[in-house]
């Protein structure tokens, strides 16, 4: 139930959807005081869209998330395992085309061969089921398997977890499959903006990890220059707002110990070879 409610709540609170709702109210509400309020809604929506298009508010919002766990300056000399979170493939499009379809987060998947070569003894798990309400039977894991096979990866080294629907289940189901032991070193691979919540969840289930962020969406060059790109601005703002809502919700549900998880001394020590 909480999974379905989270999807419905996000649909109602996504910045683009909220602005569209304001515009619709402005267009169709008529008569007296209601007309004045509708005009105010339409103007607010127009101003909001202009701000998102011109100012890098989406990039600022995203950058805060992405810089919370920066890429490690030094990777560990020994790694026991590598966890790669789903979100990098389009399983619904794959079902239609019959070939592995990836999305903007494909770097999560593409770093697996390089990390596998760097750490030949490390165990690897890809965790991704279906986060779709309308297509729950289309899973990410089989698509990831096919994509890795297509680029020549030895998938015999990879465990594919295909039942999780969200990051909480990623952590729980992966832990049950891999049985991590105290003192082991595990890398966690996911998009940089998704890393704070992910690390917080893995810590909460008793699985300390070393953050290996990929898929940077807001490079420094976007932060200090006006632009006129509504699509990119709205996409960055929507993704970051979704993640901030997730951070609050997961903390309130008791799935993370901190509202905005950050690196600790253990993380820093682990990163140093």
Automatic annotation (TrEMBL):
GO CC terms: plasma membrane
Keywords per UniProt: Membrane, Transmembrane, Transmembrane helix
UniProt xrefs under Pfam families: DUF218
Gene Ontology biological-process annotations: Gram-negative-bacterium-type cell wall biogenesis; peptidoglycan metabolic process
Domain (DUF218): residue spans on this chain: 80-246
Transmembrane segments: 12-33, 40-62
UniProt keyword rRNA-binding, yes or no: no
InterPro entries noted in UniProt: Cell_Envelope_Assoc, DUF218, Rossmann-like_a/b/a_fold
Protein's UniProt name: Uncharacterized SAM-binding protein YcdF (DUF218 family)
Species assigned in the record: Nitrospirillum amazonense
